[in-house]
Every structure is written in C-alpha cells, then in structure tokens.
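Worked example 3 (structure in, sequence out).
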C-alpha cells in the first residue's frame, strides 16, 4: 500500500503471470514449446510427471504467452514478412495449445 498526496491509500503492484504460475520464469519458458524434461524437473525438486490439472495449466500458460507474442508486435511497430511469419507461427501454436 502507498499513501498518495491526498492521504488516500492506493494498492500498487505488478502481476507476474510466470511467477504466479510457476514461481520461476525459467520453468515457464522451458515449457513453452516442448515438454519439460526429467532433468529440468529434478532441478526443481520434482520427480513425478505433471498431473492433468498441471498439464491444463501449462497449456493455458503457453496460450497466454502466444497471445502476448501475437499482440505485442503491433504497438512496437513490427511489420513485414518476418513479423507476419512470427504471427502465423504463434497463431498455429495457440490453436495447438487450446485444442
């Protein structure tokens, strides 16, 4: 909480979807385009495969990251064939993750 000049209390903060989902950006990034291997899981103290609920959460997080990659190029001014191919790629991955 922060107190403003008018003495009103304001809630300020930052949402970090990767941190809130995994408590680690690394694992979320590793899980973006491939299954997480046993060595990566072991590094997080995990030895068992993901549960169905966790698999769903991974798919939704992957979809979320794809949406970011699809949308953020426009306000950044990206244009041209390379940008178009990136958008196409991420749209295909988004459809895959949501199926």
């Amino acid at each position: 909480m922060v107190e403003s000049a008018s003495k009103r209390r304001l809630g300020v903060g930052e949402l970090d979807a990767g941190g809130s989902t995994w408590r680690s950006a690394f694992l979320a990034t590793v899980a973006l385009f491939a299954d997480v291997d046993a060595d990566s899981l072991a590094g997080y103290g995990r030895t068992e495969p993901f549960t169905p609920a966790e698999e769903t959460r991974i798919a939704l997080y992957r979809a979320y990251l794809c949406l970011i990659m699809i949308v953020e190029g426009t306000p950044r001014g990206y244009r041209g064939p390379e940008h178009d191919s990136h958008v196409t790629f991420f749209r295909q991955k988004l459809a895959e993750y949501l199926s």
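Notes: Residues 2-98 form one domain. The mean pLDDT is 76.
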